[in-house]
Amino acid sequence: MSEPPKPRVLVIMDVDGTMIKNGDALRVPFYQAFEEVTGANIRGVKVNFAGNTDRAIIRQFIEVSGVNGDYEDLLARFADRFCELVDGSYDSHPSPRLLPGVRDLLEALRQHPEAALVLGTGNIRRSCEIKLRRFELLDYFPHGGGFGGDHEVRADAIRAAMEVGREAYGWDGEAWVIGDTPNDAIAAHDAGARTLLVATGMIRKENLEYADAEHVLDDLTDTARVMEILGLA
Ligand SMILES: [Mg+2]
């Protein structure tokens, strides 16, 4: 018996702004969890969320709010409380929506014998799973990927996703990150992956054109075109 072919294209999916738009569904849980764990009120504090990792976001909030304490301990307690609050509110919140074309693209990738599919996100794994479960997308990622709750530097989350591709799928070939911010492109290139950016997140298409991505699209609605870009036509 011959072995099944090894996937030659690893597709690493970002979550927020690429597959799902959260609206304001995470704002209250985020600020509430941070305040409960640290005692600091960070509403009004400006931090760049888009394309950032949750570890890096929490570190910035801890630094600007002058909170004392062990970072790993604060982060762990924040993550527990944040995910608990999200778990109790996300499913019924009116804001979150699945972005157009996402389900069709994931289905096409799952069925393609030369593709393997993993996550590469700034999210904490548990909050990511809550989001994907609401839209019945979690089953597309049975082996997970790389997460920003484990890796502060986004490129390290992408490298972790590539490691999952190798270990779980026997992937050997090229990798593509599909994301919605210039940070996705920077991290992808740092990790040795190519990038397709979509303008469905916080950043407009004309601004994404300045990012060093191989391709920029308005959205993921044209499955055939995306598969072609990924070399899977
Ligand atoms: Mg994103």
Structure notes:
The longest helix is centred in the middle third of the chain and has 19 residues, at 71-89. Helix 5 links the parallel strand 4 and strand 5 (145-147). The protein folds into 2 domains: 9-23 and 97-229, HAD superfamily/HAD-like (Rossmann fold, 3-Layer(aba) Sandwich); 27-89. The chain has helices at 27-38, 54-64, 71-89, 102-111, 125-134, 154-169, 182-191, 205-208, 223-229; strands at 9-13, 20-21, 97-98, 115-121, 145-147, 174-179, 194-198, 215-217. 42% of the residues lie in helices and 14% in strands. A 6-stranded parallel beta sheet has the order 5-4-1-6-7-8, with helices on both faces. Strands 2-3 form a two-stranded antiparallel sheet. Helix 1 (27-38) packs antiparallel against helix 3 (71-89) and helix 6 (154-169) packs across helix 7. The protein is globular and about 55 Å long. With 233 residues, it is an alpha/beta fold. Magnesium ion binds next to loops.
Summarize the structure.
By secondary structure, this protein is of the alpha/beta class. It contains nine helices and eight strands.
**What is the H level of CATH, i.e. the homologous superfamily of the largest domain?**
HAD superfamily/HAD-like
Most strands sheet? 6 strands, parallel
Q: Structural class, please?
A: alpha/beta
Order of helices and strands: EEHHHEHEHEHEHEHEH
Number of domains: 2
Q: Number of DSSP helices?
A: 9
Give the amount of beta strand, in percent. Answer: 5-15%
The count of strands amounts to 8
CATH structural fold name of the largest domain: Rossmann fold
Tell me the span between the first and last alpha carbons: 28 Å
CATH class of the largest domain: Alpha Beta
Q: Percent range for helical residues?
A: 40-55%
> Order of strands side by side in the largest beta sheet?
5-4-1-6-7-8
* Bulk shape: globular
> Measured on Cα atoms, how large is the radius of gyration?
18 Å
